[in-house]
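CORE FACILITY INTAKE
Project code: CF-77B
Contact: R.S. (postdoc)
Sample description: multi-component assembly, two entities in total
Requested service: structural model of the whole complex
Turnaround: standard
Below are the sequence entries exactly as provided by the requester. Do not edit them.
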Amino acid sequence: MRGARLLRGAVGAAGFLLAGELFIRFGLSENLLFPPPSTVLYEAVRLPADATFLAGVGTTLANWALGLLTAVAVAVPAGVLLGALTPVERAIRPVLEFMRPIPSVAIIPLAILLVPVDELMKVSVIVYASVWPILINTLYGMRDVDPLAKESLRSFGFGPPAVLVRVSLPSAAPFVATGVRIAAGIALVLAVSAELVAGGVNGIGVYVTVAGNGNRTDLMMAATFWAGLFGVIANMVLLAAERRLFRWHHARTGAVS
Amino acid sequence: MKALARLWVVPVVLAVWEIAGRAIGDTDFPPPTTILARMRELWFSGPPARGFLTNDAIANILPSLGRMFGGWLLAALIGIAAGMLLGRSRSATDYVDPLIEFGRAIPPPLLLPLFLVLFKAGLTTQLATIVFGVIWPVLLNTIDGVRSVDRTYTDTARVFNLSRPQRLGLVVLPAAAPKIFAGLRLSLSLALILMVISELVGGTDGIGYQLLTAMRSFDGAGVWAAIALLGVLGYVVNSLFVLAERRALVWHRQATGNS
């Protein structure tokens, strides 16, 4: 069953590439700006040998990871604290609701003004955007804790810290994990956006901008291909970790894993 | 009244910000009153005949809104149509699944420089980026919604001899509507984000472009003003969508007993 699905997926992808190849080779005549898939894939395979590109990937991925980790370190404790202290959460929520609709990329110019160090500016923008999904999901998870389990522990004489550690945290953990996975996608978008707006020494976004100045659409597409690949890999790794760590959660909620 | 009482923290935060902003006196960290004054000056100090909108407001806010809604509607049309076709057949979805997974993992802003080279024109670039970036939630939710339509509905429709287009339009589409609307809502907030970035990178007008020019001329209050305007815009657009969704799905809430 799984094999058949994989095969169909491979056939679909191959068909798409072939159709694109034929269309661009024969439909668009001699147009150097629209490189056919074969050229893009060839350049994508060659890119890891390009020192500039490698340095760019290193910088972007480092910013991405650092921003995401910082966001987790900020948002999870904040979410747990707010989730445990309901009156405080209720008081702060309107402020959060006012800040949340601000499109995250609009923060980039402000960060450029406020944070003079380029790398720090990029990481802080990633942190700002990634905090929201993690915080919201943590809050949601803390609210979803089974009250019966909490009451039972309390009636056995456990204090609030013990209830928090033994019931609330494990129960909220799968929601936190989902928040982190959503944040990972957003963080990559912001990492690239900050590079496109602010420039810099290295980065995937910087590489694409430079390739664009020379009209090298083949290199731009190849670099974009790698960025998409990183996104897919990150999503797959996080999803697999979620399923492994929280098998019991899927079993309880009846979700198919 | 109770809801209003819960908002007490907002004026407190604003007051603290005002005092802190004035005490620091940094033009990059202005107090709220300065930001409001700059917003009024930039966009809302025009002649009353035009609803107090300034030339700047008309030349920038309208194109921004047009791009955002234009890209979103285009993506919605394509996403719903493709999702309806794909969702009816499990194997069809299998064929395109890896392509969808890959497509939605590409950070859309990265396509801006590419589209700028390919299309030359600003508007095509911006629309293409927005459509590419926001189509995935609509497409995936439509496929999901169409796939989970109760078999009894489609079988009943077949028994009553409804033609294929009738079945899709009268039975499948309404039954999948709640999921489709959830996707549309997510796409709308993404469209706002992509509208801004498409104006920041290679744009020539729009709120995002004004934000960029304010930054380049070290106009701290202008930067904050543009961010505040975008926040208000995001809030209003989302609220309007929720209202529209409620109206469109009245039957669904009545049928499932949620209020």
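Facility notes:
- The CA atoms of residues 18 and 154 of chain B lie 60 Å apart.
- Chain B touches chain A through 57 residues (CB under 8 Å).
Invoice: internal transfer
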